[in-house]
Amino acid sequence: MADITDSTARQAVSEGLAGAQSGVGNPLAVAPAQVIRGSLAEAGRAIARLGHRPLVVAGRHSQSLIQAPLAATAAQFGLDLAFANYGTDCSEASLADLRAVLAQHQADLVIGVGGGKALDTAKLLAFQTALPVVTVPTSAATCAAWTALSNIYSEQGAFQYDVALATCPNLLILDYDLVQTAPQRTLVAGIGDALAKWYEASVSSGSSEQTLIIAAVQQARVLRDLLLQKSMAALEAPGGAVWREVVDASVLLAGVIGGLGGAQCRTVAAHAVHNGLTHLMQSHGTLHGEKVAYGILVQLRLEETVQGNRLAATARQPLLKFYGEIGLPQSLADLGLMDVTLAELQQAVEIACRPGSDIHHLPFEITPTQLMAAMVSTTGPIELKSWEEVRPAAD
Ligand SMILES: [Zn+2]
């Protein structure tokens, strides 16, 4: 199992890097074919254009939310619906089970409803079976409803590898009323995940000469600024106009950046730290975007302490203040990892640093010891090498 996983991950990474170097011959998967912002109940016609025997992949809670509106739509447009639970994670085992259910129903369409894991499962199931897919996010916690990417986890919830899909979903239905039923914390996590676009894309692709990647990096800067300016107001008035703008930023604009930038533009240390942390059982109580947000601070700390980057050092302080205001974790303690042992932390660090990890997209070499030091000092004071050693700023 571990061998298969590692080789698949390596293959995915090497394919991504090969495409990144040339930028040519890589199919573009920029956006869903159609995005409907409105009620799920009114999206029946668009769903019916894609298929009449949908398999709805959802968690139990999401299914209870959408069963009534989907049943009404199904009656109106002659859809023969079947529901399937995706389990707890987008794992190889749950995908195998779902392929069996899909075949039994003779489904001609997959509809994913839920958070990132449900949507990643639905997208990958559709890709594996060459069927169209509709995504219906029930929270703004990630941009998974938009992207042509699925993350695979073990049944224990540990990140294993990601799979690049041929296209973005055929239809994305962003039903704000549905998103508003999710706990506020999910939008906060979505803000954290979306913020990472800038901190990671500017490091991995900030000096790219490729038109679409330049555009993606600039959009990531716009996204960061929007989130820094509007998140507080959005969280104070859920369902309001500013709240919708921040939901659009986290679910749609973050997706646009992933689509324009492609694999090369996606992730660096913030997500690598997240991936390492998912191997600790104690981290499973926190959301993807919360771990990624903490990972941004770790990445800035690495740029500060290993590279001597003055801008990274000064960027961390206002970000800590912003995290404090909206409730994103600033430290391992905030992630509930206060009692984690040194050996466990070492395990997460080694996974984050293994060959092929996105952490190696940093423009400098790092060691596990340096990563460990950065992970335990995200809230520490600015620490810079002497001015002579400080490299030119690269914001
Ligand atoms: Zn993410």
Q: What keyword list fits this structure?
A:
2 domains, globular, 395 residues, two-stranded antiparallel sheet, 8 strands, Rossmann fold, Dehydroquinate synthase-like, alpha domain, disordered N terminus, 53% helix
Structure in a nutshell:
By secondary structure, the protein is an alpha/beta fold. 53% of the residues lie in helices and 10% in strands.
Looking at the structure, what is the overall shape?
A: globular
Strand order of the largest sheet: 1-8-5-4-2-3
SSE ordering: HEHEHEHEHEEEEHHHHHHHHH
Main beta-sheet annotation? 6 strands, parallel
- Fold-level CATH name of the largest domain: Dehydroquinate synthase-like, alpha domain
Cα end-to-end separation: 41 Å
Describe the structure.
A six-stranded parallel beta sheet has the order 1-8-5-4-2-3, sandwiched between helices. Strands 6-7 form a two-stranded antiparallel ribbon. It has helices at residues 2-22, 44-48, 60-77, 92-105, 116-128, 176-180, 184-205, 211-236, 241-261, 269-277, 288-305, 310-326, 342-353, 368-375, and strands spanning 34-37, 54-58, 82-85, 109-114, 133-137, 149-153, 159-164, 171-174. It folds into two domains: 6-180, Rossmann fold (3-Layer(aba) Sandwich); 184-387, Up-down Bundle (Dehydroquinate synthase-like, alpha domain), CATH 1.20.1090. It has 395 residues and is α/β, with parallel strands linked by helices. It has 14 helices and eight strands. Helices cover 53% and strands 10% of the residues. Zinc ion (ZN) is lined by residues 142, 193, 271, 288, 292.
